[in-house]
Design brief:
There is one protein chain. The protein is mostly helical. It contains 5 helices and no strands. It has a domain of 77 residues. Helix 3 runs antiparallel to helix 4. 73% of the residues lie in helices and 0% in strands.
Length: 138
């Protein structure tokens, strides 16, 4: 509603200017009104290998799905991307079970609501993507 109001009155460009003006006001105020955290000691190290392999697996999976439409699902390019995605994700799962400080601890999967929540997020994301593609075709 606010976007429509801005668009019909002073122009859509002002949505960006209004955001910038509010940022200039709010960000300095945040330094004064948000209390500072007490320093905490960081235990463990960052799991760079897990972060890299998990991100690479997700990126390759997304690229495989996107490229399959353009290059064909059985092309060497798409099959190579898909195998790379599977290899990265399998390595990620294996590494997270062996790492002393995993980025995604396997014990999280024992919590019933964790897997259920991820499933709901996945179904919702798929629904939104389908909706966006459908709206473009209208």
């Amino acid at each position: 509603m606010q976007g429509a109001l801005l668009d019909t009155t002073i122009g859509w460009q002002w949505s960006f200017w209004l955001t910038a003006i509010l940022d200039v006001i709010i960000i300095p105020c945040a330094f004064f009104f948000i209390p500072k955290d007490k320093a905490t000691e960081v235990k463990g190290r960052i799991d760079y290998l897990g972060a890299f392999s998990g991100t690479a697996g997700i990126l390759l999976t997304t690229t495989t799905i996107s490229a399959g439409v353009n290059f064909g699902w059985v092309s060497y390019w798409v099959l190579g991307l898909g195998l790379g995605a599977v290899a990265c994700l399998i390595f990620f799962i294996w590494w997270e079970t062996k790492c002393s400080n995993p980025i995604l601890p396997p014990s999280l999967w024992k919590i019933h609501s964790f897997g259920s929540t991820l499933f709901v997020v996945l179904v919702t994301a798929i629904g939104f993507e389908g909706l966006f593609y459908h709206i473009v075709l209208l």
